[in-house]
Amino acid sequence: MLKIVLWRNKNPWQIWGASIGVFIGLLLLLFALQVYFDIQILVHGARDSNVLILNKKLRTSTERGFTVQDIDEMRKKPFFNSVEPFESNRYEVWADMDRLGFSTMLFFQSISDTFLDVKSKDFKWEPGDTIIPVIMSNDYLTLYNFGFGAGQGLPKITADFLTTLQFDIIISSKSKKQKFKGFICGFTQNINSILVPKPFMEYANTEFGFQKQKDPNQVAISTDNPYNKNMVKFLEEKDLEISRGGLIGGELKSALFLLVSLVLMIGAIIIGLSLLVFVLNFQLLIAQSSADIKLLLELGYKQQSITANLSKRLIFIFIIIAVLVFAILYPIKQFMTRGLIVEGYDKLSLFVNPIVVIAGLSFCLLFVWINFLVISQNVKKLA
User: Fold this and answer.
1) How confident is the prediction for the chain on average, in pLDDT?
2) Given CB 3.0 to 4.6 Å as the disulfide criterion, which of 104, 135, 304, 345 pairs with 195?
3) For the chain, what is the domain count?
């Protein structure tokens, strides 16, 4: 009887219209929040570690490397925390990958582990070891899948699959050669190279190096602020350019976060307006039913019973909204993540971030609580 008295002759579309607004706003809000967490994973190490890879601009075909004096000068600059040149192979490297059906010449570089965004316990080597761990640029996998491989009609390769392979690595000089086994233990997004442990590079250059040692072509640096004006001025004066690292990643990260923030703001505005519509609708509902509510109170119905009856409809609506939002958000997250995993971004989870789930449920509970207070206060005024 209570339900019939309170809801008779009431237009349900007012409530459902506000519900659609909450649904759209909450979906946008949680989607933007999920994208934010995914971006944090994708660009981890770009601006967070503030590692830049520098090389001298080529003005002629003559190779220009970093001299000892250049590196010493950079180490004295206050905006550089640490500076270390790359060491490159001075021997020939050949890789045979039977399971993939091709072999190719390679190049190796090494750098201190402090500059790596891949932390693997397998990335180590000691004299006498016959297996070489390799860290490869994630860009190379992307170029293979969507460039070389696609042009040759070859199947796409995932990062997980590549880490299960072992392949032959032949190191040779003019007079001798040695065969090793190699495997990929990680993919870096900061350094556009093929990296091996420093102890192996030093050993191989000593044992097999036949080329004259040259000044390093690239230098890795770390900095607290990749946007430091003095640092940018120094790079321009020394004719240096950033070939890879935090500044580029930082700009991209800032642009992506700006876009996500805009979506978050739009979602928050829609939710705020929808909440206002909910409050106004329930106030209007109570005002239209004020005579019936007063009569029910005179007949002995308690304020709590009337408030609970109105709140049940509200709770039911928000349960539907929460279920629909996550029923749509989860497949979207799965679709986007699977596409990124194919491109080599295997650190992403297929599941919605737990913080996003908690945020969605918290928003629904907050809305129900606010509307419950409004309903309770308005019913109390009629008592």
Assistant:
1) 80
2) 135
3) 2
Residue 219's nearest CA partner among 105, 64, 61 is 64
Least confident of 204-208, 349-353, 355-359: 349-353
What are 274-294's pLDDT values in tens digits?
777 777 776 776 676 677 667
Burial of 108 (0-12, 13-18, 19+ CB in 10 A): buried
Rg value, the chain, Cα:
31
* The pairing of beta strand 167-172 with beta strand 102-106: unpaired
CA distances 139 to 57, 117, 142, Å, are 22, 14, 5
Q: State whether 284 and 186 are in the same domain.
A: no
Residue 322 CB: number of other CB atoms within 10 A?
19
Return the axis-axis angle of helices 354-382 and 246-288, rounded to nearest 10°: 20
78 and 224 housed in the same domain = yes
% of the chain with per-residue pLDDT over 90: 25
Answer yes or no: do 108 and 235 share one domain: yes
Query: Burial letters for 212-223: b for 16+ Cβ neighbours within 10 Å, e otherwise?
Result: eeeebbbbbbbb
**pTM, to two decimals:** 0.55
Of 187, 113, 91, the closest CA to residue 145 belongs to: 187
* pLDDT tens figures, 173-222: 888 899 999 999 998 877 888 999 999 999 999 999 988 888 898 999 98
Let me know whether 127 and 207 are in one domain. Answer: yes
What residues contact residue 381 under an 8 Å CB cut-off, 6+ apart? none
pLDDT of 58 strictly over 80: no
Look at residues 201, 235, 47, 231 and name the one whose alpha carbon lies nearest to residue 113. 201
248-255 average pLDDT score: 55
62-71: b (≥16 Cβ within 10 Å) or e: eeeebeeebb
CA neighbor of 167 nearest in space, from 268, 99, 236: 99
